[in-house]
Amino acid sequence: MSPSEIAAYNANWLRAWTDKDVERLCGFYGETCVYKDPQTVAGLEGNAALRAYLTGLFAATPPMSYEPEETWPIPGGFCGRWYCQIGEGGALGRLRGFDLVLLDGDKIRLNEVYVHQLSA
After folding, report:
1. Is 25 exposed, middle or buried (0-12, 13-18, 19+ CB in 10 A)?
2. What ranges make up the beta strands (E) of the chain?
């Protein structure tokens, strides 16, 4: 993918996170994907495990609005930095995050997520 295609892919993917759209989100991931975030230290393997995780996560979390900041192409994928407002207008906090994304074609095969809290 070109840098502009990566930026568009990342923006669409983060929009699915904001929308809490499990079906659309899982469509970005391959069947044998590996997903890791601070809540899944050992990681999740496979689209079905990711789907179950996201369903529970989205039911348990307030609205979260993800905004892409920047993407960098790397061999086999990209890295992306983003901001997230938790709750309406960030009333419940803000995060800054970074994703490592490796692709097979247009499907995510590995996604490692790193986040930290930002001050109010």
Report:
1. buried
2. 29-36, 44-45, 64-74, 77-86, 93-104, 107-118
| pLDDT values of the chain reduced to their tens digit, one per residue, 120 residues | 899 999 999 999 999 999 999 999 999 999 999 999 999 979 999 999 999 999 999 999 999 999 999 999 999 999 999 999 999 989 999 999 999 999 999 999 999 999 999 986
Residue ranges of domains in the chain, CATH in brackets: 3-118 (3.10.450.50)
Q: Is the pTM of this model over 0.70?
A: yes
Kindly state the tokens that stand for 117. 């809290």
- Quick one: tokens of 79? 């890295």
Cβ distance 107 to 30 under 8 Å? yes
- Name residue 11's amino acid: A
Per residue, the 3-state secondary structure of 65-85, as one string, reads EEEEEEEEEECCEEEEEEEEE
